[in-house]
Predict the 3D structure of the following.
Amino acid sequence: MQDENKWFINGCLLMGLLSLCVAWLWLGERGRLARQHLELGKVFQRAGSREQALQSFESAVRFHPRLAEAHYGRARLLLRDEPVAAEAAVTRALELGLERGAVYRLRGDARVRLERLEEALSDYGRALELDPKDALGYEKRGGALFLLDRPGAALADYNQALRYSPHNADLYHNRSLVHRRMGNRQAAIRDARIARELGL
C-alpha cells in the first residue's frame, strides 16, 4: 500500500513538473512571437506603413499582454486619430514599467488632444524630470502652457527648449506667438524672422 502511494505521489509530481515545463515552453514561444511582432511593427512604422505597424503591435500585445513596448508602439500610432485609445495604451505601458520621458510625453500629447491640459502638464513635467535636457518636452509643455493662457511660463519653457535645440524653427515660431500675446512686438518680429531664416 505504501509503495502504491509512493508511486502515485511520484507520478503526480512528475505530471505536475511536466505540465510546468509545457507551460514554460508555451509561454516562452508566445514571448518570442510577441517580440517578433514588436520588431516587425517598428519596421513597418519606420517604413510609414501605419496599418501594418498597428496590426503588428496589436499581435504582440495578444501574444504577450505585459509587453509594455508594444502598448507604447500602439499608442504612438493611435494618437492622431484615436487619442482616447492612445491614452489608454500609453497608460498601460507606464503601468507595466516603461518609465521613460518619451512615454510620459506621449501621454501628455494624448491629453492635450483630449483638452485635459492640466493632466498633460503633469505628464510633461514628469517627462522632464526623467530627461531634463529634452527640448521636445519643453516645447510640448510650453505649448500646453500657452493654451492655458500662461504666456510667462510658456516663454520660459520655449527659452529652455532653445538652449537644447537652438536651430529649431518651430520653437522660434512658437516663441514669437508667445511674445506677441505678451505684447513684446519687437521680440515677436525677431523670432518670426529667425524662424523664416531657419526654413519655416
About this structure: Residues 23-98 form a domain with the Serine Threonine Protein Phosphatase 5, Tetratricopeptide repeat fold (CATH 1.25.40.10). The chain has a mean pLDDT of 88. DSSP finds ten helices and no strands in the chain. The radius of gyration is 25 Å.
